[in-house]
Amino acid sequence: MPDNTRRARDEDFWLTFADRYAVQPGPINLENGYFGRMSRTVVEEYQRNIELINRSNSVQVRQRFEPQDSLDIRAQLAEMLGVRAHSIALTRNASDGLQALIRNYNRLQPGDQVLICDLEYDTVKGAMRWLAGHRGVEVIEIDHQHPATFDSLLASYRDIFVRYPRLKLMALTHVTHRTGLVMPVQAIAALAKEHGVDVILDGAHALGQLEFDLESLGVAFAGYNLHKWIGAPLTLGFIYIAPQRLADIDPDMGEMHFPLNDIRGRTPYSTPNIPALMTLPLVLEEHQAMGGSAAKGARLNYLRDRWVSAVRELPGIEVMTPDDPRLYCGITSMRFTNHADQQVMAERLLSEYNLFTVVRSGAASGPCIRITPGLTTTAAEIDLLIKALTELS
């Protein structure tokens, strides 16, 4: 058994790990997909940085942070990702970055087509639809077959690329926020490249719980969060642009603070959350010290498998995410098939079992309850979830 798989089942280790985090008494949080917790040491570092910047004000920022520290921080992040520093730019979150990539993509002509699917994040859908009015393109929208398989996902895109030869750009989500389905990004991107379609990848939920080589995915443009599974303060994310493709993204609204060949001009220029950025080196150090995405992902998958294997065959329960290990991660959704209103059932999970979950809608397969364990979630809490789902089914 690999070390990460063995450790994923070691409750004593994860209880010790959970002690590094402050958790407020109250409902058991199974909605850890919104944003992650900072460790106690990261919170302390963040507070120190807030106090430092508040004391020193623009002197520290102008003399040290802007000319040197910000570049060092970006270089450390790039090293963890295995990419060159000049291929990433820090943003406030994935949504900001993805909107910037979409609106500044300059290879579209009137009459071209762009592609979205039902599982895309609403902000991404909105940005792609915005292109219709401002670039004169046609938006192609598809619904994915449910339940999805690796082959069905590839087949759906292969068919779309053939049916719509004017496609030039597509959105693709690595981990879908509605059901937790993990898209086979590398395979889809290879198909897209064969047909001359560029991919803008939404990696908001992927970084920190999935192992991947960013350059090997085959996408030229991507946006990520750092405050979900990496453990950074809120307001931190980044975009990636393959260096050879930088010219295909215009500077944001004529941005002139950076040279034309600097990726940082491809995002809105504003005063960032400097204390949060200064915290990032410690965040990356802690993430890597515990084994990075491999260790975190193994634990989250173990917790997910624990409840899914116990309830998948129950009458009245439908698990929305497949069990193909290529297509799932810690985030998984389900629904009560005997109840039309999933929000009512989510409220019952909270009121009767003290389990906090969230309802997601917008997928063609219908509303579902998203269940996302976190790094402080225990096996005992998952067992309570199993009990609740069994009784409510």
UniProtKB/TrEMBL annotation:
Residues 70-383 form the Aminotransferase class V domain. Signal peptide: none annotated. Keywords: Aminotransferase, Pyridoxal phosphate, Transferase. Pfam families: Aminotran_5. GO terms for molecular function: transaminase activity. This is Class V aminotransferase. It comes from Pseudomonas prosekii.
